[in-house]
Design goal:
Structural class: alpha+beta
Largest sheet: 8 strands, mixed
Order of helices and strands: EEEEEEHEEEEEHHEEHEHEEEH
Radius of gyration: 29 Å
Number of helices: 6
Distance between the termini: 93 Å
């Protein structure tokens, strides 16, 4: 019988990491993206999993807020004992690898209800080989990049990770006050000089007539995402997105086996505040459309939230980390779309060579010009 670490022989929950053993050789299995099962990295044996119901559950946000919780940054790390090699360590990530034997570890401990467990997983669409190809295409287009960067685009350099994100549904109603601007035109006479003579012409001049406007707009938002981690930076993740959440499945710890997944360090409150800023930009556009006219000014907005639902989703990402010039750089590949965002170094030698070549070309062109001019 295959025993999932975190359970005893009878299937009862125990403290400790989830580690699913290979039915053939006993090694720790890893989840295989794009499939419905796990695979042994050594003997390639497979183990099918029961697929959770499509979609992941959403919870009432107001009800979630009624329970007091310790600030997430104050929560202790997990204390783990690897069931493959027996080594003990502490970690804050909910998924990673044992530092001693490199077996995958997945934590199911919610620290006494203080830490919210994931609700769903957005599956990997871009596999490791495709991610490496996307990375190589990105590096090939980086001018003046050091040669070391070109050598990083291998599958061995790519690490899969799930990043926690908060997803919010919100039914909003917004009352607004503002002004509507309607353009009108008048004919203006002016004089100008043409061929030494004064000529009188006319032109149309635009004016704006402003009038008071107020009204109400409604907008339903679904899965407005806000990052649950402080690194990578939110602006990097925004440029890397969007991820499609429509394919999100229910959560199983086994889905994280073989991948990294940090514990969220930005709580739901901060996540909702961030999501609300994104909603506000959309709502303001709705108000402008409702005001109509040629120009609009929105002076006041009052938005009411109703039936707010939320969930904690894990979004897939490939990460390549490389070292050059004594500095570490990271490149990220969206595992939904293949979009690549990353840091890149510049090769001083290549820039200097290009400058010398450009100077030589200018000098050659100048000498040819002087020669031909004689």
């Amino acid at each position: 019988m295959t025993v999932l670490a975190g359970q005893d022989e009878a299937g009862q929950d125990q403290a400790g990491p989830h580690q699913c053993k290979c039915p053939s050789c006993g090694a720790a299995l890893e989840f295989a993206p794009g499939t419905e099962g796990m695979v042994c990295p050594y003997c390639r044996a497979r183990l099918d999993l029961d697929v959770p119901q499509a979609g992941s559950p959403k919870q009432d946000y107001a009800q979630y807020l009624t329970k007091a919780r310790t600030a997430v940054t104050m929560l202790p790390p997990f204390s783990l004992s690897c069931r493959n090699c027996g080594s003990a360590q502490q970690m804050t990530a909910i998924a990673g690898r044992c530092p001693s034997c490199r077996s995958p570890l997945v934590v199911s401990d919610n620290l006494g209800g203080q830490l919210k467990s994931p609700d769903g997983v957005v599956p990997f669409v871009i596999d490791k080989n495709k991610a490496a190809a996307c990375f190589r295409e990105w590096t090939s287009s980086r001018w003046f990049a050091p040669s070391a960067l070109k050598k990083v685009g291998t599958t061995e350099s790519m690490n899969g990770s799930y990043l926690p994100h908060w997803g919010f549904d919100d039914r909003t109603t917004t009352d607004y006050r503002g002004q509507r601007g309607d353009h009108y035109y008048t004919t203006e006479t002016f004089t100008t000089q043409e061929n030494g003579q004064t000529v009188t012409n006319t032109r149309q001049v635009q004016h704006t007539r402003w009038s008071h406007a107020e009204g109400q707009v409604s907008r339903d938002f679904v899965d407005m995402l806000a990052t649950g981690v402080s690194a990578p930076d939110a602006d990097v993740l925004e440029r890397l997105g969007p991820w499609s959440t429509t394919a999100a499945t229910g959560y199983r710890p086994e889905y994280l086996a073989g991948f990294d997944s940090p514990r969220y360090d930005i709580d739901a409150n901060a996540g909702f505040a961030s999501a609300r800023q994104d909603m506000a930009a959309v709502i303001q556009d709705d108000c402008r459309a409702d005001i109509g006219g040629d120009e609009q000014r929105v002076d006041e907005l009052s938005t009411a939230d109703q039936d707010v639902l939320f969930r904690l989703l894990l979004l897939p990402l490939w990460i390549a980390t490389y070292l050059t010039g004594g500095k570490t750089f990271q490149v990220f590949v969206n595992a939904n779309t293949g979009e690549v965002i990353g840091e890149r170094p510049y090769s001083a030698a290549k820039i200097a060579a290009a400058a010398v070549a450009a100077l030589a070309a200018i000098t050659t062109a100048y000498l040819l010009y002087r020669t031909n001019a004689r």
